């Protein structure tokens, strides 16, 4: 049997915890405030009746003062109750939004690391922070207003027919027409507007972040117009969507505003016709009441409209948050075990990225012995980085087993698994903190001397010497900026300090100049000594001394062996080595004007 989907409001209140009762209290107080807010209108009618009954003598109208004070005190009490209601719902709303953010972040921390490599940071921030914030307005303002909106129409309809049913019917007619106009404006093709609106906002936010990040490259190659295309397209689509919605609401909005503010157009002729054949004083008293009460009815309809908008926002917020909460977290199977050693093994592993119909790895099997350096090489898109990412569980294999020390990585506690592996990627990330804190990110409890020793082993002495505060120099905003190769060496210092038994190197020298590459290679010697190493590289000179080389092509193992044995096979690796050697010898030369050929530079 299909389970009924939980409403957005029930889902949001599920995060409120003990503050749910505070939300309920706020709604009750708001309903009481709304009922008390109607009493002053009755008091005005009673006071006007007393005055007109004795007009022009104005004797015996002392009771009017009593009605006036009653109106004042009920209005004051109504305002006080509404203030108490909003205080209660605001406290509950802030705590609920906090709980939603906590739940989302707690779930995010359980997701595979690969989830973050494929998500735009701007979009992810909006999904968690902004959508949690959307629930605050619903709980803090719109929900207590809804309680008043539900109670007020019932009392208002009774009051409309209490004094003069004909004038009351006219006021009710304007309310019904206003509601129909609102349904016309928000229904039909406009019903899904808010969902489309939020998608365009997310797209624009993500494109803005990506564009700002790429500004240095854009300016370097003078590609401003072309690089702006994606961001501009997002802005244009958002603008078109908003404009189309606004234009489609013209008729509905015009009718809505006309009806909620047009009660006077019906009440005045009705009062004149009614007075011509009856008691003028009674008609005048009733007209005064309905003339004052009609705008209050319009305000009530406005609240209903804003409430429906808040509900759409809440539906969208819950739906967007579910995009994260429905992501499958990493799961540990069986009893959690500790690896016996640092050996890495792939046993018939197949893996396909989410949303892809083609396996990135297909039936891959190989082993890396403790203390051995294994290199993964091959054409781009062959599956090298994918294979390396399965070891720390950036993703989990669809079939087959990835194991460390004879234990399936799914059966290793996440903390223990992370302690087993050090990573050095081509895209190094340094925090906007001191170099000391950046290095100690691998081991927060490490001493300053240990961090300094790791920096020395990573060939960072020249970096520390030129910086104003050495190891305490702040990197990034309001600090210093390091070159790609210098950042890579700091990352190596971090990995050396961690001293994990398994090291994964993914294109660690990709952005290094020759001088930095030489120092990085020396740092590698300190990092990989007596470690199990899996190295990914396109520069084949960095892997020719590896104990074992695996050539991945199209997600499958095409060849494997030592450098010499692979050259002897005259296969993919041999062709790659030949191309690498040719590119290494190539130099920029001048063209011979006579022959039209470049100068010989080999």
UniProtKB/TrEMBL annotation:
Domain ABC transmembrane type-1: 24-313
PROSITE patterns: ABC_TM1F (PS50929), ABC_TRANSPORTER_1 (PS00211), ABC_TRANSPORTER_2 (PS50893)
Recorded superkingdom: Bacteria
Gene3D superfamilies per UniProt: ABC transporter type 1, transmembrane domain, P-loop containing nucleotide triphosphate hydrolases
Localization: Cell membrane
Keyword Transmembrane helix: yes
Transport among keywords: yes
Name this protein carries in UniProt: ABC transporter ATP-binding protein/permease
Source organism (scientific name): Candidatus Mediterraneibacter quadrami
